[in-house]
Amino acid sequence: MNQPTPGKLRQSPAWKALQAHQAEIAQVHMRELFARSPERAQEFSLEAGALLLDYSKHRVIGTTLALLIDLARQAGVEAWRARMFAGEHINASEDRAVLHVALRSALEAFPAGNDVMPLVRKARQGMRAFSDAVRGGRLLGHSGKPMRTVINIGIGGSDLGPRMLVQALWRHADAAQAVHFVANADPDDLARVLSQAQPESTLFIVASKTFTTGETLANARLARAWLIDGLHSEAAVSKHFAAATANVKAAAEFGIAPELCFSLWDWVGGRYSVWSTVGLPVAIAIGMDRFEELLAGARAMDEHFLRAPLEANMPVLLALLGIWYANFFGAESHAVLPYAEALRELPAYLQQLEMESNGKSVDRDGQPVDYATVPVVWGAVGTNSQHAFHQMLHQGTHLVPCDFLVPVATTGAAAENALAQAAALMAGKDASLAQRRFDGNRPSSTILFKTIDPNTMGQLLALYEHKVFVQGIIWNINSFDQWGVELGKEIARTLAQSAAAAAEAGMDASTNALMRRLRAWRG
Predict the structure, then answer these.
(1) DSSP letters of 286-350?
(2) I need a labelling partner for 254 at 20 to 30 A (CA). Which of 15, 188, 325, 340 fits?
(3) How confident is the model at residue 487 (pLDDT cuts 50, 70, 90)?
């Protein structure tokens, strides 16, 4: 990799002011900050819609936030936000607009000058008709039986979002159908789900914008063969397969009826697509009325992000706190800790959203950056995580800022455990025995909400989407391409062809030796 020269961001007045301020505050303990200000919890908290963000347990004071806001203004966050909502092609490397916000818009026309709302409304109408037909038992298979099993075949953004939401909203799911998800290229993933299904009552949804995604198509072909084998008719494919795709021609060649192809567009990235027809499994599970509530929640957060001043803007504050630790304290990871079993899949969803968006080492002009971008995002559901890795969070050598996501309606003591963990990370505990000492001063945000419902989930996911956007703007990177996904997949296609193809591609000696062993063991 080219060695970056000192760039504009690190040489900027706002960056240098933050560096100087960090040197002043680095040794200040949060216990002292709370002792200084009895009103700290109120001063450093913010409500937006259904969400309460308490960010008082961070190593910040008013000056810190003012300097971070200066950094955001220096980067032009407000102007870039306006450009995104105006439909400009801010995804420059692919020359595309970034309009996932349109998918939940209620405006008659949006954006000005490039109205996509007729397409969005038509897609929503199609989703409603299809999901209603499946849920109502009116969509019949090749044998005339209604669908009882729905299997979504996708990967990445075509899997993580709907999978997470179906899990999260299980209390709101009232469909007669069981909804499953298959993503892994390992055929065991599909085989496990098919073992619970009957061909005559199974519906497959293939979610792939291009209809060329290798892992998705491999699973779709296996599902197709299973269906044909079970129903003894290739014609059955048109009755048992639907698609969310922009490539209707390829879907038709696969055997999917045009009326069961639901549109996607190039101005929606995969990890931002759960609001689109990629959300069909969610609409089937909870019904389209509740799916509209999900959209309404996201729309409310869009309005907050668009209208609220930066210093009272929840996505902006989350983004700036992340930058504070990644760029000025050297934090290399960030933990997401939802204290609700229903949110078990949320950390995986946010991993893709954040790391695929901002895991970049060149800026928008193609120049190497000389500062950290996105940290490693990881996490697990509480309270399980307390018995897995919280030891490291409390007493390890790494600084790991945490997000505690706490629905207060969760039964048991989960919410109390979350608040206790955040308090312990902040305050620590003195002890004469070193092994029992907790230094504390470890930062966390707590996001509190009353319950897990579609509207609240819409707000929560849109909050993190806009956080990612703000960080990308400040780091001067394109958050909406993902070229790093492609190289390994290209090499995998070469290796799958033949040993000769791999040799011609100039593969390294290690890979060639491993491929020879792999083929030998396969026989």
Answers:
(1) H-HHHHHHHHHHHHHHHHHHHHS-GGG-HHHHHHHHHHHHHHHS---EEEEEE-SGGGTTHHHHH
(2) 188
(3) confident
Catalytic residue among 356, 360, 465, 466: 356
- Choice among 39, 108, 387, 486 that is catalytic: 387
Tokens of 105: 């818009």
CB under 8 A, 24+ apart: contacts of 10-17: 10/370, 10/371, 12/71, 12/74, 13/70, 13/74, 14/67, 14/70, 14/71, 14/73, 14/74, 15/71, 17/67, 17/70
How many Cβ atoms are within 10 Å of 19's Cβ, its own excluded? 13
Q: Give 164's pLDDT tier (boundaries 50, 70, 90).
A: very high
Cα 44 to Cα 61: distance, rounded to the nearest angstrom: 9
| pLDDT at position 73 | 97
304 is catalytic: no
Is 323's pLDDT higher than 60?
yes
356 is annotated as an active-site residue: yes
* Whether pLDDT at 298 is above 60: yes
The pLDDT value recorded for residue 489 is 84
- For 11-35, what is the mean pLDDT? 97
Tokens read off for 231? 């129903």
- CA distance linking residue 289 with residue 135, whole number of Å: 13
Which candidate in 16, 489, 490, 504 is catalytic?
489
